[in-house]
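fyi for ur records
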Amino acid sequence: MWKHAGPGSFARNALAAVGVAALLATSALAANAAAANDAELTIFDGVYTDEQADRGKDMFASDCAACHGNTARGGPGSPGLIAFTLDSKYADQPLSAYWDFMVHNMPPGNAGWFTDQEYADITAYLLQLHGAPAGENELEGTEEALSQIMIVPTP
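which gave:
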């Protein structure tokens, strides 16, 4: 048998439902904001250190510059690795796509010559040449870490 809950119970229940809905909406907005902040890390957010770029410079000079030029802007028959390449070809892709291409294709005929971390050091040097500022933390040579950083056109 149905019992009457008393005067005002409908209003209290409705108010409680609105409160729960507001709390859920606030939680969802906070989660979306946190995800957006995570996704907003770009190559211009200090994702490597100067020391790391220095290590990468030495490896680049010995194994990459002969084809790609001392400034990584390309050479006869070889593409540039910075500037237009990052601003257009790799724009709006994770840094892992750029790094992954190097790991699996460079140097030609000897892909995988460097360790994953050494490829990250070379990537740090290329970011420095591109004009991306250094930061406090080294760029990690893992697909997972590099996929959290987006390549965006030069501001």
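The CA atoms of residues 117 and 141 lie 4 Å apart. thats all i got for now
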